[in-house]
Automatic annotation (TrEMBL):
It is a multi-pass membrane protein. The keyword Transmembrane applies. It is found in: Membrane. Its main location: membrane. It holds the Pfam family UPF0014. The chain crosses the membrane at residues 6-25, 37-56, 68-86, 93-115, 127-147, 187-212, 224-246. This is YbbM family integral membrane protei.
């Protein structure tokens, strides 16, 4: 099987010229997204290069404390990105969100490393860091959608919420329909993706392994493991984040403790 074909830095730079297309669309339709596009591309490029250099060092050192520190940073940054993108107050929601991420990812990483893959050593950075990154990365958008939907419902369906409280139900019971709707919207994209995987899309991990020369069936088995793990991680982290967010942002009388959206 053919080994991975390298891409030179010159080839990569020339390929980046294709970004003229979204820039043209942005300018033609007057979307005013030029600065955001430039910032996103520059940050993506610099961050990936720096992470690549650091991961090379991390993999060679293969230290459990360093692996845990890196994983902790991923969790902290991920929680901050979720709340920031959802335009919600960090003071009340940071702990609920990061708790959901930690509870979601920790058991799965333990199962993958200790029971399924069993690398040597068990805390191998080559497996631990990329898998944690895939799990967390694929859960960001789901958490953002769920939080936005939940707190939008409090704004848009305020009368329904207050009416339920007036009937004597607890604040959690009054908010429960909003949480159900938020969870359904959060899970919909990944369920659609799982349904069409292999027919419409070829997932990134499987494609990467095949391009790297791995056996096709080995790549498929890894991809199935990751997709199931991502779905479990998403359901656990989003559900726990919403439950804890409701308890954190609503007082016993049912009043919202914080302004919902940062202006």
């Amino acid at each position: 099987m053919q080994s991975t074909i390298d891409i030179s830095w010159v080839q990569l730079a020339l390929f980046m010229l294709i970004l003229v297309i979204p820039f043209f669309i942005n300018r033609y339709l007057k979307l005013a997204l030029g600065k955001e596009i430039i910032s996103a591309v520059l940050r993506m490029t610099v961050q990936l290069i720096l992470v690549g250099l650091y991961l090379q060092f991390l993999f060679e050192l293969n230290s459990l404390p360093l692996n845990l520190i890196w994983l902790s940073l991923m969790l902290l940054i991920g929680a901050s990105a979720i709340i920031g993108s959802a335009r919600l107050p960090k003071r009340r929601l940071y702990l609920p969100v990061i708790t959901g991420l930690v509870v979601g990812v920790t058991p799965l990483i333990a199962i993958l490393l200790l029971a399924l893959l069993q690398p040597t050593p068990l805390y191998s950075a080559q497996y631990m860091i990329p898998m944690a990154g895939m799990l967390l990365g694929n859960c960001l958008s789901g958490n953002i959608v769920a939080l936005q939907r939940l707190f939008s419902a409090f704004e848009e369906q305020k009368d329904q919420y207050e009416g339920a409280l007036a009937l004597g139900v607890t604040p959690y019971q009054a908010a429960f329909p909003f949480m159900q709707s938020a969870l359904k919207q959060s899970f919909a994209p990944i369920l659609a993706s799982m349904t069409t995987t292999g027919l419409v899309t070829l997932p990134g991990m499987m494609t990467g392994q095949i391009l790297a020369g791995s056996d096709h069936m080995v790549a498929i088995k890894y991809q199935l493991v990751i997709l199931v793990a991502i779905f479990v991680m998403l359901t656990v982290s989003v559900t726990l984040s919403l439950i804890l967010s409701i308890r954190s942002c609503i007082d016993p009388s049912g009043l919202i403790r914080v302004r919902l959206f940062n202006k």
